[in-house]
Amino acid sequence: MATAVDPALIENLVVANRVLVNEGVLDAFGHVSVRHPKNPRRYLLSRNLAPALVTTRDIVEYDLDSNPIEAPAAFTHFHERFIHGEIYRARPDVHAVVHSHSPNVIPFGVTEHPLRALYHMSSFLTAGVPVFEIRKSAGISNMLVSNNALGKSLAETLGESNVALMRGHGNVIVAKTVQMAVFRAVYTEVNARLQLQTASLGGPINFLANEEGAKAMQVLDNIHVRAWDIWKRTALAQMKS
What whole-number distance in Å separates Cα of residue 21 and Cα of residue 137? Predict the structure, then answer.
């Protein structure tokens, strides 16, 4: 049976979809979820819908096997919802997940150049950014994480990191809150763009040291809500227009 959820959390999940579209992380594809606040073995995700169209009526509750709980029969569901269920199963510390195909990140999943933290706003990348190679689990496939076994393999690749790339596909980003997950998704894309630009200048790149990243992340824990507040205000205005 579905469990009642604070409407404010549902609103933030809807807003997260709109923000990620506005910031160029999601387009017609990709999705964002939150762990159920009253039942850690369930999570909330929109039905199969373009992120910019998601409303509170489109949010569905799933168990960790990614089976929908009491969803309307007319709803269809994301093929890759298993990404979310298996990450929540593997990572009790994670309460929000973003899966995107943000364009500037893609090159780092298909080359020998790792995505690394270039500046303080992306300090969460200093934890390391592994690359999920779906061929190791599925051979030659359609590249989609469309079952629990593949979701588990992706979660294993993610490990304790905040971000994992998916070769030839996109990325997955995790955090303790949906606000921080959105922040990390945005600044993963920004860092990737800056890293590509910096590489064009030639010469070695002076990336953040692990210790610098750890100190900067402590600051971001406190200030990321400044970004969320303005992003949310913009998204709500759009939703009302």
Answer: 30
The pLDDT confidence band at residue 1, using thresholds 50, 70 and 90, is very low
Classify 141 as helix, strand or coil: coil
On whether the CB atoms of residues 153 and 136 are closer than 8 A, the answer is yes
For residues 135 and 155, what is the distance between their CA atoms, to the nearest angstrom? 15
**240 domain-assigned:** no
Residue 132 belongs to domain with CATH number: 3.40.225.10
The pTM for the full model equals 0.97
Is 236 domain-assigned?
A: no
- Assigned domain for 208 exists: yes
Residue-wise pLDDT for 192-212, tens only, equals 999 999 999 998 999 999 999
- Domains identified in the chain, total number: 1
Q: What is the pLDDT of residues 11-70, one digit of tens each?
A: 999 999 999 999 999 999 999 999 999 999 999 999 999 999 999 999 999 999 999 999
| Residue numbers annotated as active site | 80
The answer to whether position 105 is within a domain reads yes
CB-based contacts of 61, cutoff 8 Å, min separation 6? 2, 3, 5, 36, 42, 43, 44, 68, 69, 70, 71
